[in-house]
Write a structure and sequence with these properties.
Calcium-transporting ATPase, cytoplasmic domain N; 20% strand; 21 helices; 6-stranded antiparallel sheet; Alpha-Beta Plaits; single chain; elongated; 48% helix; alpha+beta
């Protein structure tokens, strides 16, 4: 299968998306995703020999519908969205003066006899009708040609009926009885303004998302050689790097792209990939991950991969995919929208016939009621109810460092009753601290001085943590020091005394050793021990308290020891501990928990990925492994774990906004159409209310963007 991604400009609502979707389906494409908010379209095809030709034909057909197709996203951070709005405003401002003059006769106490002249009204209404015909007429023709009737069909029929009935009246004996010119003009002008208000909220969200998803640019030091063999180093943006480029990366700098080390040694923080903040040693022929940081050391490397292969690019792709997805509640609205406009046309026809033949009303009054039915109906409200709310919800979440990769899961946050946390890198920082120690030496100072003097010579992260915590000016000197892999540090003094600081594996007698992180041994006898603990994330307590306040059970599920997990659980007040579990065991446990009640899981490592995939909602940190991110429904970026309560609240609020939008859209049509059919609503007022329905949805969606979170 070959995947194709387009940027399509000109989509205005869900009906546009359905039209494009249907067009691509006819071409035999599969897995079609159309996002009317961002204009992203993707689909797949089994690429035959003429695959490129089929894609080009599909592109021409979509463009024949009035849309513009390009292969790349608009990088202007919202300017394109504002450009989409410009035609609405231009047409609105051209129509408004004529419409206002036509409606002056409705002002109480203002008598303008010249305005009641039918030919004057024709002159004022014609420019507005032509503006509407140019826009709504083209849109109607395109939609009818593809077998999907859109909202513009109703607007065109309503305004045309009013306009041409009025023209017909010019040639009768009593033209004043046929004057609907102001109705035709007001329908067009008000709908154009309503379209503008719909799109302004979408434009703001589009700008925010584009800003977030811009690719991060890192400056690289590129190495080049002149003809004489002299080395030159010059700066270059990471976006300009190519595979094979030779680069120099120094202490404190980020790796600009995936690369392989040619020379040098360094400590590298790969938190972006592994979720662990502890630096790892890198040497010749080791791989470097784009976005990781050099903590200490200088490296020469050559670029092995750039661009879309980076972790951030993967997150951006997931976010764009999420925007095009539809939660289950929207699928019902889509099905109704497809049959809604034909149903309205039938109701309008029945209104005209029923009022004339059953109610014995004159043609003028019956037509007025039928026009009101056409104008009052608003399928756009149903179509935009979900996309508008999701666009605002995703935009606000993105600003807060929260990326929803699966929109369908947003509504499930309200059902979550259990929250499962991995320990290392999720509830803890991965940075080590001294939790306690005991010894048989003369004093604490002597013990700390001894341990510091040995551990400061080690590159191990735990040793570095101890050396940082117990740093002192006076140090013990040794004749010989060795770092013994898997055991710890060995040191020998001038008088022949041997010391060892390391794991329990070096103990000659483990009978009464206890369960500690490090042991200090003198001449093969245990003289002390040190307990090391991960730092608990400062924000973890607040997250656990939030879960408790919402009656959500909290659980630690970790591969670490029972004792260490119990310690973290006790410090944070976590309800249950499940420790010392392998990835396959974690998967089985999550499946079991899910059967009891909906369960969310927060994890960051490769070993968490299988379990994350099975959770009702899976949550990962942006520093997590790529596998964990790909398995996650939500990725927390800026602020990390602290953003979890916001993610949960925004998920609930977004779903609540979708529900209220759909309720308004359905209730509005169910109530408004009968009122119009029975003559209690003038078409002009109907157009105003119809535009108002879209405004209500837009404002309700925008309210989601500013609502206060707890």
């Amino acid at each position: 299968m070959t995947k194709v991604e387009w940027k399509v400009d000109g989509m205005t609502c869900t009906t546009c998306a359905l039209t494009i979707n249907k067009t691509l389906e006819k071409k035999g494409f599969r897995h079609i995703v159309v996002d009317p908010i961002q204009g992203n379209v993707s689909f797949e095809l089994e690429k035959p020999d003429n695959g490129d030709t089929i894609i080009q034909e599909a592109q021409k057909q979509v463009e024949s519908l009035g849309y513009k197709v390009s292969a790349e996203d608009d990088p202007d951070n919202g300017k394109g969205a504002r450009a989409d709005i410009a035609p609405y405003m231009r047409r609105f401002w051209l129509s408004l003066p004529f419409t206002l003059v036509l409606m002056l006769h409705m002002v109480p106490g203002l008598h303008l006899h010249w305005l009641m002249n039918p030919w004057v009204q024709l002159a004022l209404a014609t420019p507005v009708y032509l503006i509407g015909l140019e826009y709504f007429g083209k849109s109607t023709w395109r939609s009818m040609r593809n077998g999907i009737l859109n909202m513009d069909v109703l607007v065109l029929l309503g305004s045309s009926a009013a306009f041409w009935y009025s023209v017909y009246g010019l040639f009768t004996h009593k033209p004043q009885d046929f004057l609907f010119f102001e109705t035709a003009a007001s329908i067009i002008t008000i709908v154009l303004f309503g379209n503008y208000l719909e799109h302004i909220s979408i434009a703001k969200t589009k700008a925010a998302i584009n800003k977030l998803t811009r690719k991060q640019i890192i400056m690289a030091n590129v190495i080049a050689y002149d003809p004489d063999g002299h080395e030159n180093i010059f700066p270059m943006e990471s976006t300009a790097l190519r595979v094979g480029d030779l680069i120099l990366i120094k202490t404190g700098e980020q790796v600009p792209a995936d690369a392989k080390i040619l020379s040098g040694e360094a400590e590298v923080s790969e938190a972006l990939l592994t979720g662990e903040s502890t630096p790892v040693g890198k040497k010749n022929a080791d791989l470097l991950v784009g976005g990781s940081s050099i903590v200490n050391g200088n490296l020469r490397a050559y670029v092995t991969a750039v661009g879309d292969d980076t972790v951030m690019s993967g997150i951006v792709r997931m976010m764009k995919k999420a925007q095009g997805e539809k939660p289950p509640v929207q699928k019902l609205a889509d099905r109704i929208s497809q049959v809604f406009i034909p149903a309205v046309l039938i109701i309008a026809a029945l209104t005209l016939v029923g009022n004339m033949w059953l109610a014995n009303l004159p043609l003028k009054e019956s037509l007025l009621r039928a026009i009101a039915v056409l104008v009052i109906a608003c399928p756009c409200a149903m179509g935009l109810a979900t996309p508008a709310a999701i666009a605002v919800g995703l935009g606000r979440a993105a600003k807060n460092g929260i990326l929803y990769t699966d929109v369908s899961r947003m509504e499930l946050f309200r059902t979550i009753r259990q929250m499962v946390f991995d320990k290392t890198g999720t509830l803890t920082t991965g940075k080590f601290g001294i939790n306690g120690f005991q010894h048989s030496l003369d004093s604490d100072e002597s013990f700390q001085k001894l341990v510091y003097s040995i551990e400061k010579l080690s590159n191990h992260p735990i040793a570095k943590s101890i050396a940082t915590a117990w740093k002192t000016k006076g140090v013990m000197l040794f004749d010989k020091v060795e770092e013994r892999k898997g055991l710890g540090m060995w040191a020998k003094q001038k008088d022949g005394t041997e010391w060892m600081v390391g794991s329990g594996a070096m103990l000659p007698d483990k009978t009464n050793a206890g369960n500690h992180s490090l042991y200090v041994i003198k001449q093969r006898e245990l003289v002390g021990w040190i307990d090391i603990a991960d730092e608990i994330r400062p924000e973890a307590a607040g997250v656990i308290n939030y879960c408790k306040s919402n009656n959500i059970k909290t659980i630690i599920l970790s591969g670490d020891t029972q004792a260490k997990c119990e310690m973290v659980a006790q410090a944070l007040g976590i309800d249950e501990v499940i420790a010392e579990k392998k990835p396959d065991e974690k998967l089985s446990i999550i499946e079991t928990l899910n059967k009891k009640s909906p369960t969310a899981m927060v994890g960051d490592g490769i070993n968490d990925a299988p379990a994350l995939a099975k959770a009702t909602i899976s949550i990962s940190l942006s520093e997590a492994s790529q596998l964990a991110i790909q398995s996650a429904s939500v990725v927390l970026t800026g602020g990390g774990l602290a953003q979890l309560p916001k993610a949960m609240q925004l998920g609930k609020l977004t779903y609540g906004t979708v529900k209220s939008n759909l309720f308004w859209a359905f209730a509005y049509n169910v109530v408004a159409i009968p009122i119009a059919a029975f003559g209690y609503l003038h078409p002009t007022m109907g157009a105003l209310i119809m535009g108002g329905s879209d405004v209500v949805l837009a404002l309700n969606s925008l309210w989601l963007g500013v609502r206060r979170l707890r």
